[in-house]
Amino acid sequence: MAESSSSSNELGFMARHHFLLRRLHSLSGIIPVGVFVIFHLFTNAQLATDTYQHEVDWLYRTVPVLLLVEISLWIAIAFHAGLGLVYTFVGSKNNVSHYRYGGNWRYFFQRVTGIIALVFIFLHVATMRWHWDIFGWYTPFMVDYTLPDGQRVPMATASVAVALQSIPVVIFYLVGSLSVVYHWSNGLWTAAITWGITLSVAAQRRWGVVCAAMGITLTVFTFAALYGAMTYELNEQERMAYELYLAEGPPEIDEGEYPLPLDP
C-alpha cells in the first residue's frame, strides 16, 4: 500500500488528473467556445443577406451581459488553449510519415489547426475588438459613428466590409476561420469518444457524419460572410465616417446605449 502511494505521489499533476483534465478540455471546447463559434459564424453570414447591421444592433441593444459573456469566453479559451498546447508539445506523438491512416492525420491536423486558430483569434480580436495597429494592420469594428453634423451612421456592415476587402485579410480570415471550423468539428467527434458516448465503430461513423455536416454548414457560413463583405459597396456617409474614424479615432460613445464594441 505504501509503495502504491509513493508511486502515485511521483506522478505529475497532469498524470494524476488525466481523466478529469481530458474531459474538461473537451467540454470547454464545446461549451461555451463551440456554441459561440456557431453563433458568431451564423451572425457573420448575415453579411450576405444585408441583415448584419440589424443583428448587431439587436445584440448590443438587448443583451445586457456582453462583458460577462466575453470574460467567460476568454477564461474558457485560455484553459482550452493552454491545456491543448501542453497536449500538443508534450503529449503523445503522431506518426503520419510512417502510419498514414485517417485517424492519425485527423489528430495531426487537429493539433495544427488548434495553433492556427489560437493565433487567428488573438490577432482577430486585437485588431478589431481592441483596435490595435499591428505592423500597419488596423481593421477596427464600429457599431455606428456620429458625423460632425450629428448624423449617426450605422457602420457594422461597412467596417467589416472594409476589413475583408483587403486580399491579405481575406486570406488570413479564410485560413483562420476554416482552421477553427475543422478544429471544432473534429474535436466534437473526438469528444464523444472521450466522454464514452460513441464506443463502437458504427457509432463513431454515424457521429462522424453529423460532425462533418456541422463542419460543412459552418464552412458555408464562412464563405457567405466573405461574399457579403467583398461585394458590399460603402455609401458616401459610411466612407466619410470611416475616414473620420481613422483620422480622429473613436468618437465619444454613449455607454448607456451601446457598450464598448466587441469583434464582429
From TrEMBL:
**Parts of the chain that traverse the membrane:** 24-43, 63-90, 111-132, 152-174, 181-201, 207-230
Q: What stretch or stretches form a coiled coil here?
A: none
The UniProt keywords, alphabetically, are:
Membrane, Transmembrane, Transmembrane helix
At the top level, the lineage of the source is Bacteria
Asked if Membrane is a keyword of the record, the answer is yes
Official protein name in the record: Succinate dehydrogenase subunit C
